[in-house]
Amino acid sequence: EYMGSKLVVFETTLQIKKAFLALVANGVRAAPLWDSKQQCFVGMLTITDFINILHRYYRSPLVQIYEIEGHKIETWREVYLQGSFKPLVHISPNHSLFDAVYSLIKNKIHRLPVIDPISGNVLHILTHKRILKFLHIFGAMLPKPRFLQKTIHELGIGTFRDIAIV
């Protein structure tokens, strides 16, 4: 079974309002950001970013909400990131499922673009939910490591003592 999904890519010079409308119209929650000047993907724009944009400008009496409609994604990134631009965390389709999960956890991110190393195209965006869905669908066909036979307590996952109950 193919686990397809829509993929929307935004140029960083796109207006924030148009980006938001495009996410909503396509039913996606995030989009990779392409910077034409640098000729590479520089980040992700998510629904959470739009909430942060509204929150930041709602609290400022100097900026009317209609003023931010004309702002570009690159303007927001400059204001929000304040020069602390980090490279986009991504993987290639040649990486393992373990690599993907490890990258999501290590980098504390919710979306991980899969980028083709040859073409430079984004092929897919992995999320925790999509990985769990894959494991649910195909888990019965995969070999089971020994640790999956152990209980949660035996694996030491969670807190089992010194719990205060009120």
Automatic annotation (TrEMBL):
Keyword Repeat: yes
A single BP term in Gene Ontology: fatty acid biosynthetic process
InterPro entries: AMPK_gamma/SDS23_families, CBS_dom, CBS_dom_sf
Gene Ontology molecular function: AMP binding; protein kinase binding; protein kinase regulator activity
Gene3D superfamilies named among the record's database cross-references: CBS-domain
GO cellular component, one term: cytoplasm
Keywords recorded for this protein, A-Z: CBS domain, Fatty acid biosynthesis, Fatty acid metabolism, Lipid biosynthesis, Lipid metabolism, Repeat
CDD domains named among the record's database cross-references: CBS_euAMPK_gamma-like_repeat1
Keyword Signal attached: no
Residue stretches making up the CBS domain: 3-62, 84-144
PROSITE patterns assigned to the protein according to its UniProt record, in alphabetical order: CBS
Subunit structure: AMPK is a heterotrimer of an alpha catalytic subunit (PRKAA1 or PRKAA2), a beta (PRKAB1 or PRKAB2) and a gamma non-catalytic subunits (PRKAG1, PRKAG2 or PRKAG3). Interacts with FNIP1 and FNIP2.
Stated family: Belongs to the 5'-AMP-activated protein kinase gamma subunit family.
Name of the protein in its database record: CBS domain-containing protein
